[in-house]
Amino acid sequence: MPQDELDTLLAEQVAYYRAFAPEYDVNSPLPYDPASRAALSAALDAFQPRGEVLELACGTGQWTAELARHVSQLTAVDASPEMLALASARVQDKRVRFIEADLFGWQPEQRYDAVFFSAWLSHVPPQRFDRFWTLVEACLADSGRVFLIDELPAVAAEEEPVPDAVAPTVERPLGSGAGRVVKVFYEPEALRDRVAKLGWQIEVHTVGWRFFYATGARAPA
Length: 221
Fold this sequence. Notes:
Elements: H1 3-24, H2 34-47, E1 52-56, H3 64-67, E2 73-78, H4 81-90, E3 96-100, E4 112-118, H5 129-139, E5 140-151, E6 160-161, E7 169-174, E8 177-182, H6 188-196, E9 200-207, E10 211-218
Parallel strand pairs: 1-2, 1-4, 2-3, 4-5
Antiparallel strand pairs: 5-10, 6-7, 7-8, 9-10
């Protein structure tokens, strides 16, 4: 495996989001229409992410604010200091702490009752998929649960694929040019089956043509 090429791509992904942070909320590559946002918010409310909760790749804090309505404590992690600055300005709550860290190298200092991530799994290269779910497991208490949001394969038609990249990659415009990010699209059943092989039980639900969310936990021993 050309590991250095993969590391370079992941570094480009961080650089893209650092540069894109000031315009993310206006020109988000993950645009929520009102109906989809309402459905996803209702699903999160039904999930009830209570107790000690961890948010991975929090970005500008769009979901951090919603999570904060439920939790007793919330830890939000992102690799971009620019994104974290926007998130901490959006969510000024003493129960919320922000951590700057690369999720491909970060390890938790504690275990959590729930782990949440939106628009992140699709940015995990296939080569790091298993390792990422090992991280999620390390973050969860014995009875901990996971909630994730991402995009359906139909969205691929809106992206500009990069041929012959080390992982599924798209190129996105920036004010100063363009940036490359990993983008892996999952069919709901395929995702459910793949994580099942890693010892997880999740249920995947579609929301319109663009989004899905999944909830679950480690399968019983």
